[in-house]
Amino acid sequence: MRSIFVLTLAAIGTTALAQTTPRDQLDPKVTEVWDLKPQKITPGATPSDAPSDATILFNGKDMNEWTAAKDGSAPKWDLKDGAMTVTKGGGDVRTKKTFGDFQLHIEWRTPSEIVGEGQGRGNSGIFLQGLYELQVLDSYESVTYSNGQAGSIYKQEQSVPLVNACRKPGEWQTYDVIFTAARFGTGGRMIIPAYVTVLHNGVLIQAHTAITGPTEYKGLPVYKQIDKGPIQLQDHGNPISYRNIWIREL
């Protein structure tokens, strides 16, 4: 984030110069930045593959990066065929590491045969910083409240997805998430809200959406100060599967 601040100051300086000097007298080099070079990384072979600077949160082989959210014990989810799946009574799981601003890639799948309607159809959630729920749900041909369908920040009015990009039940789906954490001032007062951008199966469904606070089932959200938090996956009583999870700290 420091490099962005420095570039901003440089842009202000060059803009001021351009405003006081006739364009035809400007040296083109004035607006060239050479001393701030982006870090070189190796991208993945496909958009789903982790780049070289990513942290692998789930590799399909073990759950070493995860713990039971309730008591910190070993996760009780099922591990099979490169995926981890919610088991009955398994409870939420969360990462051992915590994160501030990040890019997250995660793949999920609802069961091919789903019993129930609305919020009962393949329900789970991805809690960003352990607080803000990005809804996981079978919304392919199911009706529920719009700010509770797949891709919403659960129960927040302004987070209704731009489109419904859900695949059929039983098919793997992807979320690619860009998250910037809320900023707090003196006394824990929120001065900048958290923002999230989400691509669902490669389709933009949240475009720099402001998050109004931690997810609440009842009532309105109220921010509480936090610098970093885990990625938490919800056990909502449905056998949802997850795989290929990686994250980049920004």
Brief digest:
With 250 residues, the protein is mainly beta.
List keywords for this structure.
29% strand; 2 domains; 250 residues
Task: Kindly describe this structure.
This protein has about 250 residues and is mostly beta strands. The protein has 2 domains: about 1-40; about 40-250, Exo-inulinase, domain 1 (Jelly Rolls, Sandwich), CATH 2.60.120. The chain contains 1 helix and 15 strands, in the order αβββββββββββββββ. The longest helix is centred in the first third of the chain and has 19 residues, at about 1-20.
Straight-line distance between termini: 8 Å
- Report the biggest beta sheet as strand number plus sense, adding barrel if it closes: 8 strands, antiparallel
Count of all domains: 2
Instruction: Detail the poorly predicted runs.
Output: none
Beta-strand residue percentage: 25-35%
Give the integer mean of the pLDDT values: 91
Present the secondary structure layout.
Layout: H1 2-20, E1 55-58, E2 66-68, E3 78-80, E4 83-85, E5 93-95, E6 102-109, E7 124-128, E8 132-136, E9 173-180, E10 183-184, E11 190-192, E12 195-200, E13 203-210, E14 232-233, E15 241-249
Antiparallel strand pairs: 1-15, 2-5, 3-4, 4-15, 5-14, 6-9, 6-15, 7-8, 7-14, 9-12, 10-11, 12-13
